[in-house]
Amino acid sequence: MSETVLLPGTASLGVMGGGQLGRMFVHAAQALGYRSVVLDPDADSPAGLVAHQHIRADYLDEAALAELAAQCGAITTEFENVPAQALARLAERRVVAPAGAAVAICQDRADEKAHFKASGVACAPYAEITTAADLAAVSDDLLPGILKTARMGYDGKGQMRVRSRAELVAAWDELKNVRCVLEQMLPLALELSVISARNAAGEIVQFPVQQNLHIDGILALTQVPAPAVGPELAAEALASAARIAASMNYVGVLCVEFFVLQDGRLIVNEMAPRPHNSGHYTMDACDVSQFDLQVRAMAGLPLRQPRLHSPCVMLNLLGDLWFGTDGAERSPVWDQVLALPCTHLHLYGKASARPGRKMGHLNISAATAAEAAATARAAAALLGLPTQW
Ligand code: ATP
Ligand code: MG
């Protein structure tokens, strides 16, 4: 089944989830002439609004899954918390890439870390906490640390920083005593990520390493080429990401996030079984985007090594930008931003802005990295985003 080739212009491709990642996937699929189908319960989902067909139903709705499988030659996902049973059900009839088993590993921080270890890639020292006895048995070495829910965390949600045992106990209560991992707080020098695409034949292609800045646990900015990453470190990150993908027999686009510690060591943080916010620059700075590769991998088309043709800075556009200092809702000054050279604005079509909500992103490409950074700082200043990076 995985050897199936779905030629452009002849088939429908489906996606579980209707968020912005699904929307950009739909755009890429449509550019190649595929029909697109989105399954998402939300009537106004960003992807549902642009797909040929929107099946508006719960992810576990049997009739909806049957309809999706009937319509589509292959199905992918745009979020890792899609129920594993839903992917298993679809896989009975169609190519599902990535496979439910790989998505399941990414859904659970403890399983994910076990997989990193098995792949021979170092992750932060951690302990799994399921019971009060686990909590009591935690080693002092893990403090100060970060307590993270094993499942359903994103954008820094479901995480609490703890300095002492007393804070740890209080934090676990606050997280309702669900299964967690406690990670040692590491001295970070910087953060980077790698986007890989792998097909059923085991061929893998990768974008260059990108450097990421998070503010308040949410990605704020991505730069490529990564300004503070030397060739050896970049090669290590690419090789580690490839090993992690291969050892899951992964098919699709995979993002692996890393920390670089102050002593220079590379540590894997987490992974996402889909295109990633830190790969959005590929839409305007590479000859093939992460969404193009998602389409190619699931359709069984050849993967070609993508080429970064322009240095780029990506600024994330959160809902905060839609509110003035007086708290009143407003539109950001897009006309002024678009007057700057080589700015590519992507808005996700979300009807209402909320602080912290991902509304869009702005890619700034240029002939040189210095030019891209200077223009990005000018855009950030116009938008009221941080310019010190
Ligand atoms: P997302 O889904 O947006 O990637 P998340 O909610 O899954 O985020 P993590 O990636 O685990 O969260 O953590 C968010 C950020 O918190 C990291 O990018 C990093 O800046 C910081 N962080 C997480 N774990 C550690 C750690 N062990 N030591 C130091 N900083 C950390
Ligand atoms: Mg993360």
Automatic annotation (TrEMBL):
InterPro entries according to UniProt: ATP-grasp (IPR011761), ATP-grasp_carboxylate-amine (IPR003135), ATP_grasp_subdomain_1 (IPR013815), PreATP-grasp_dom_sf (IPR016185), PurK (IPR005875), PurK_C (IPR040686), PurT/PurK_preATP-grasp (IPR054350), Rudment_hybrid_motif (IPR011054)
- Indicate the enzyme's highest-level EC class: ligase
Record pathway:
Purine metabolism; IMP biosynthesis via de novo pathway; 5-amino-1-(5-phospho-D-ribosyl)imidazole-4-carboxylate from 5-amino-1-(5-phospho-D-ribosyl)imidazole (N5-CAIR route): step 1/2
Taken from the UniProt entry, a GO cellular component term is: cytosol
Catalytic activity annotation: 5-amino-1-(5-phospho-beta-D-ribosyl)imidazole + hydrogencarbonate + ATP = 5-carboxyamino-1-(5-phospho-D-ribosyl)imidazole + ADP + phosphate + 2 H(+)
Entry's EC annotation: 6.3.4.18
The residues covered by the ATP-grasp domain are 113-299
Q: Which UniProt keywords apply?
A: ATP-binding, Ligase, Nucleotide-binding, Purine biosynthesis
GO MF? 5-(carboxyamino)imidazole ribonucleotide synthase activity; ATP binding; metal ion binding; phosphoribosylaminoimidazole carboxylase activity
Q: Which residues bind ATP?
A: 109, 148, 153-159, 183-186, 191, 214, 269-270
Q: Do you know which Pfam families this protein is assigned to?
A: ATP-grasp, PurK_C, RS_preATP-grasp-like
Can you supply a Gene Ontology BP term from the record?
Answer: 'de novo' IMP biosynthetic process
State what this protein does. Catalyzes the ATP-dependent conversion of 5-aminoimidazole ribonucleotide (AIR) and HCO(3)- to N5-carboxyaminoimidazole ribonucleotide (N5-CAIR). Catalyzes the ATP-dependent conversion of 5-aminoimidazole ribonucleotide (AIR) and HCO(3)(-) to N5-carboxyaminoimidazole ribonucleotide (N5-CAIR).
Q: Which NCBIfam families match?
A: PRK06019.1-1 (NF004675), PRK06019.1-2 (NF004676), PRK06019.1-3 (NF004677), PRK06019.1-5 (NF004679), purK (TIGR01161)
The UniProt subunit note reads as follows: Homodimer.
**What family does the database annotate?**
Belongs to the PurK/PurT family.
Q: What is this protein called?
A: N5-carboxyaminoimidazole ribonucleotide synthase
